[in-house]
Design brief:
Helix content: 40-55%
Oligomer: single chain
Shape: globular
Radius of gyration: 16 Å
Order of helices and strands: EEHHEHEHEE
Mean pLDDT: 85
Number of domains: 1
Strand order of the largest sheet: 1-2
Distance between the termini: 43 Å
Number of strands: 6
Length: 103
């Protein structure tokens, strides 16, 4: 992959490199959806910690209401309150999975 005709690893910042990978992932999801006729499950492991606020919001806007998505995080504060309202938030504590109420 290149950015301005230069390999992304050499040219791009970490945020740009992450954005490139996520753009490819979103394109892959769209292709899978077109081929099988239903949206696939998207798994994102602590991806927001690696992105700046603008890129976080762009990613969340791109996936909102489109794919069933599981996102792991250690910081719920990285999510916009509006986005959390439509999400089911689960917590793992002492090996137990528990639903969190954010109200």
């Amino acid at each position: 992959m290149t950015i301005n005709f230069t390999p992304a690893r050499q040219y791009g910042s970490q945020g740009q490199q992450r954005t490139l990978v996520l753009a490819l992932k979103l394109a892959e999801l769209q292709l899978i959806e077109e081929v099988i006729g239903e949206p696939p499950l998207l798994l994102l492991d602590d991806v927001l910690a690696e992105l700046d606020l603008n890129r976080q919001n762009q990613l969340l806007d791109a996936i909102q209401d489109r794919f069933q998505t599981l996102i792991t995080t250690t910081h719920l504060g990285a999510f916009d309150a509006k986005w959390l309202e439509s999400a089911e938030v689960l917590s793992v504590e002492s090996g137990r999975l528990m639903a969190l109420s954010l109200n």
